[in-house]
Amino acid sequence: MRPGTGIDLDLTPSSSLEWLETNGLGDYAQGTATGANTRRYHGLLVANLPHMDRHVLLSTVEDWLCIDTESIPLSSRYHPGCVYPQGQNHLKSWQASPCPAFVYEVAGLRVTRRIALVHGSHTVLIRYTVEATSESEGALLSGSELMLRVTPLLAFRRYHDLTHANMDLHVKTFPIRAGFKIQPYNALPPIYIRSEGLFDFLPSPEWINTVEYPVERERGFDYQEDLFSPGLFEIHVMPGDDIILSASLDEQFGMAASGIPEDLHTLWDAEMARRSVPQETGKRKAKNAGPLCSFLAAQSEDFLMKTPGGRSLLLAGYPWFGSWGRDTLIALPGTTFLAGRLDEGLAILRTIALNACDGLIPNTFDGDGQPRGFNSVDASLWFAWDCQLMLKVLSKDPERTQEFLDLCAPTLYSIIAAYRAGRVPFTRVATSGLLEVGTPSTQLTWMDAQVNGRPVTPRNGFPVEIQALWYNTLAFAHSLAKKREDPDPCTSRELKALRAAFAAHFTLPDGSLCDVWRAPEDGVPDTSLRPNQLLAVSMPEPIAPKSSWKAIVDLVGKKLLTPFGLRTLSPDDPAFCPVYAGGPAQRDGAYHQGTVWPWLLGPYTDALLKAEQVDENGEKEKSRRKPSRAVKQLLETITPLVTTHLREAGVGHMSEIFSATAPYAPDGTTAQAWSEAEVYRMLLALRAADRETYENWEKTLPSFS
């Protein structure tokens, strides 16, 4: 986490608070503020392995402070009916920045354990500092023998799975300079674990049985596994000592060319220095946008990665999501080029464009950056939106603009051709020009949850946001072709007819839009109040009639807006689910049936600011007043999201979803890219709309600088 923000000060250590470390390679480390893992996804080194996706390699360490003959636990684990060891009893404080730090006080000593991944290296550093709590305590301990006993606990399994004691694991350790090497399974790489200081490593292989993960149990999944201990370090210490252990997939990490171990403190200091200021690319954009936006821009670096082959990807969320086409394109502006990372944004768009197949953008990418699946109906259409926003950023750089157009224009035209040719699964262009998608048994839009193989929110027919994305793509391609003197993929007459067909089919008596229109022979239109209709207003080329903009925004704001995002279904609907909880079926059943999603604040803000520019008849407002009231109300509404929430769940990050009613409990991933990116983009838009109102509001927030 970016240091110096203060948002993690005075937080009471709790297993509900989670920290996150990343390294830009797709690896991560994650755990709780008590030090006890509560999810199968938690671990100190969860590595993105070539051709194999992420694996939890080093799950945790068991560490004890030994004073003469007394052993005092620092770490904690869950086992059936108990916590063992009970290091949480000695944990006095915890903080997340600039890296997770656990402070223990026992017998006149203060022991601090810090954890950091090294950027660009498959390596975790674990740093212990030992101090006397006072001079008098130090004097009393001067004749005592002090030792840290540290036992690495290995999982070596896919991060979605669990492991159990087995006879296939290779228990033998091999001595290396300042530590040992072990390769538990032939198919996985060896890990090299080293320690500083005066130590003995005692090989003593054993399985630690029935480790439990309480959150997995709550979520209705298997929750027990066995971890393997290859042996333990006995590190001799005294007050004032500062010892670093490293666990790495790189045999040469921490070793000089001469073969002599390097000072790990130098490597630690270099990593902390890298974190001490936002990356230069981020500073250029974020520095003038205020401390909150600067903080969010710095944090979003966690979602960027380079594959083993050097491809640039954006990860959808931690701890369990990889790279998704739709998520990437929605999160990309607020994570990269609007946050000052122009080169990263261009690189990711290039990866996406070059991996398009017959005009289709991949639904997912694996850990190597290879496309996996082309079964999303909307991912390809979000590409146009990214290109539109990118061109605004590039507007003052003609050379790069031309280079970008040469990349995106052919991809854009091929996307349109793919839809018209019927190459997009379960999708066809109707005679009206609108897009019909799916069957009653498919789930092809972002509302894709299933229970027992059936969609929870059937969106077959003509989903409103698909029409909005389709029209925006066509209108953008039309203007692009005109500028470049390319063949026109969609004429002005076709666009006008498309707008007319949309208005005729989708407009409801109250001025809002139905969620899914269906022809009479295909069933009843779905008039459920959902946030999807916002895209018909929010897109750069909006398909909704201007006369409906205010009605759409007002109704969505009244029924769906919450302090943490937008509900996915009106509370007035009989199918509304107020709480996201229970096992997989219960949670999937609530996923888009009311559950709040922060990312929707981006489209809501775009639509709100557009609606402020027109009157109820869709005519342009004659007075050029600032939308001060609307900006102020929205900022005040979402204040808990950027204050309270950044101090809970995944500290410093934003969750994927929230329950639909107070207290709006966070859930899903603890760090979700499109949540943070779209909130960041929302804040930039509100600041641009009324800077004075925004800055007055920001002064009321806790310090982010």
Chart the SSEs and their pairings.
Blueprint: E1 18-22, E2 28-32, E3 43-49, E4 53-67, E5 70-73, E6 76-79, E7 82-86, E8 91-95, E9 101-106, E10 109-117, E11 123-132, H1 135-140, E12 146-158, E13 174-176, E14 179-182, E15 191-195, E16 198-212, H2 214-218, E17 224-237, E18 242-248, H3 264-276, H4 280-286, H5 291-299, E19 304-306, E20 312-314, E21 317-318, E22 323-324, H6 325-335, H7 342-354, E23 364-365, E24 371-372, H8 379-393, H9 398-420, E25 427-429, E26 435-437, E27 450-451, E28 454-455, E29 462-463, H10 464-484, H11 492-506, E30 516-517, H12 535-538, H13 549-559, E31 561-562, E32 565-567, H14 584-590, E33 596-597, H15 601-611, H16 628-637, H17 639-642, E34 657-658, E35 666-667, E36 671-672, H18 673-689, H19 691-698
Antiparallel strand pairs: 1-2, 2-3, 3-4, 4-5, 4-12, 6-7, 8-9, 9-10, 10-11, 11-18, 12-17, 13-14, 14-15, 15-18, 16-17, 19-20, 21-36, 22-23, 23-24, 25-26, 27-28, 29-30, 31-32, 32-33, 34-35
Helix pairs in contact: 4-5, 6-7, 6-8, 6-18, 7-8, 7-9, 8-9, 8-10, 9-10, 10-11, 13-15, 15-18, 18-19
